[in-house]
Amino acid sequence: MSLLAKILVTIGSTASIGFGIWHFSVPKVWKWYSYINPTATELFVAVRAINVFFSLSLVLFGILNILFAYGNHSNRYSIIVMLSATCIMWLTRLTFQIIYPQGSINPVLQYGMLFAFIIITLCLLLSLGLVASQKPFFYQ
What we know:
- The protein has helices spanning 3-23, 26-29, 41-70, 76-99, 107-133.
- By secondary structure, the chain is mainly α.
- It starts with a helix and ends in a 7-residue tail after the last helix.
């Protein structure tokens, strides 16, 4: 894996880990549960479960991408698979931010998130392109 690809993976994955860690606190900070009817206890549980799953996914994908990029036992195929899955995840998030923007209560937040999602997605897509375009070499 080229040095540039590793740098791009590190930037995109570190940002993904950061968003994942930050997102664990989002329901409390933004008072998500205040919008839910207090008698809808199953909805509370569902929102919490989805947020934990999403947050943990961002953290784990980020960590795995870095481990694969810098690990001695990963191969080109495994790196491409992991980066592809991560790119699909971030392309989906970016698309949702464009079509259904979050943070619209504050333009700085809305466009800050959009900018961050574009940077993360570009870093990961460019690193995927660099890895995919490398000629594979086989060990004997």
